[in-house]
Amino acid sequence: MLLRTLKTGLLLCVLASGVSCHSLLPKHWSRSDIQNLQGNWQSDGFGLALSIDREDLSLYNITSEGCYPEPVTLSEIAYELPFVDFISDSKVRLGDAPEGGFNFTFDRLDSIDSVCTESLGSSAVDVVKAYAGTMSNLYPFFELHNINDWSIRTQRAIDTVKSNASDETVFKALVEMINGIQDSHVGIAAQLPNGPQRISKRHLRDLDPILRPRYEAQANDSSYRRFRQEFIKELRRKTQQAVLENAPGQLLGTAADGKLIWGTHAGVGYLLIHQFARYSNTIDLDTDLAIAANAMDRVVQDLKNADAIVIDVSLARGGFASVAFGIASRFAPPAPETESKTPIQYLSHERKVYASRNPQWEPVYITASDRPTFAGAVTVITSDATTSAAEEFVLAMKAFPQVKIVGTATNGSFSDMLEKSLPNGWSIGLSHQVYRDAQGVELERQGVIPDTQLPLFQAIDQFPQTIVSIVKNSQ
């Protein structure tokens, strides 16, 4: 199972229920690419292996408990990873774009059997083993969540499904294995006889204690996850109204399917960002980048005379990191006129792939966009609902000297979500990267600490008015 730098749990077309890659026109590799890719390959850090010939491709998930195939065609891989870079005869990089996209590095293998020594089928026991091995090999944060008995949990789950191999029992056994983990990128999606089931380990340390009692106090057939989503959606609507639609606010524009909203309030610009993906009816990085770029041209133009700008990501979930960086680049100070025209690179953070065979910290830099930018003071509002790509956006903004962060610590779920399949066709998600800030502090679960801490959810019904106060005080 493949992924992009999409940090919300949205699936690629080869994974998503109800979406067919065959209905899309694939971007074909060249004849030369296919010729040179023939053979066997192992990924660095994602538990994947490929076997390719002129017409066919086999994709395998490799775990310490065994390996199992993934039903993907050559055309589908070529569509998802059209960019090919032969680093050497024995190393290749496959990705969705030369820059700014997601890339896998593969090393050539003599044989798939060298890494696939034990095969797993679709039995209940093998499904548990596949999940246990995937998490054990790729998940970096067991210790952080006080999970020190993974092998015991695995054996307990195996014993459970041996005695009852129904889909419902298998699903419950997997869910019990991750009990205690609070990570927005850990989850399981299953197709059960009574319909699809999905468990997400997303946890909002400040908001959940307030919302849970409200959920439990009312008769509600929906899940708590759905209840929370609807509550946040309504909170966004009320905040937009309080800041931009009530005097002295002025709504100037919306874009990206309503996920970017901006205007002014008492001379201060206000940009409300809901998330950093799905800016159209497709899940496509290039489309979202283009929409975000055009929208930010309008934002900068409309707010160019503002005393300051407040960017509100307090209720923002994830998306594409590249989209987040593109928006952040509109606020990066350009090189001074008296110096070289070479753009200044601002160190945002560093990251590494936990399960890589040679894990290295990779620096992430932000430079000023060559499209219109805003040079004034900026305040960014954050909370524990600020998650994933939204947190990378905050890190990028924090690197700029004229930016201050206000609110509470972000969620602390930074890693791209790695989407994998299980042998029975269910899908799972997990974190697989470690992030640290420009000062070397690892950030998972802790989140980005604001410059000025202000509890936003303490008086939850006054949340919109709290945001209005922050905007007014940002001049």
Cα(first) to Cα(last) distance is: 48 Å
Described by its quaternary structure, the protein is single chain
Number of helices: 11
The main β sheet shows up as: 7 strands, antiparallel
Number of domains: 3
Q: Which range does the strand content fall in?
A: 15-25%
CATH homologous superfamily (4th level) name of the largest domain: 2-enoyl-CoA Hydratase, Chain A, domain 1
Helix content: 25-40%
Mean pLDDT, nearest integer? 89
Low-confidence stretches: 1-26
> What structural class do you assign from the helix and strand content?
alpha+beta
Number of strands: 21
Architecture per CATH nomenclature, i.e. the level-2 architecture of the largest domain: Alpha-Beta Complex
3D shape? globular
CATH topology of the largest domain: 2-enoyl-CoA Hydratase, Chain A, domain 1
Task: Please give the order of strands in the largest beta sheet.
Answer: 4-3-2-1-7-6-5
Question: What is the highest CATH level, the class of the largest domain?
Answer: Alpha Beta
Radius of gyration: 23 Å
Description:
This protein has three domains: 21-114, Lipocalin (Beta Barrel); 124-200, no CATH class; 222-333 and 368-412 and 447-472, Alpha-Beta Complex (2-enoyl-CoA Hydratase, Chain A, domain 1), CATH 3.90.226. It contains eleven helices and 21 strands. The chain has helices spanning 31-37, 74-80, 124-138, 150-163, 167-177, 208-216, 224-245, 285-302, 321-328, 389-398, 463-472, and strands at 39-43, 48-52, 57-63, 66-70, 83-88, 91-95, 103-109, 187-192, 195-200, 249-255, 260-265, 268-273, 309-312, 346-353, 362-366, 378-382, 403-407, 417-421, 427-431, 433-437, 452-453. The strands form four sheets. The chain has a seven-stranded antiparallel beta sheet with strand order 4-3-2-1-7-6-5. It has a seven-stranded mixed beta sheet with strand order 10-11-12-13-16-17-21, sandwiched between helices. It has a four-stranded antiparallel beta sheet with strand order 9-8-19-18, with helices on one face. Strand 5 (83-88) and strand 6 (91-95) form a beta hairpin. Helix 7 packs across helix 11 (463-472). The protein is globular, with a radius of gyration of 23 Å. The termini are far apart. The model is unreliable at 1-26 (pLDDT under 50).
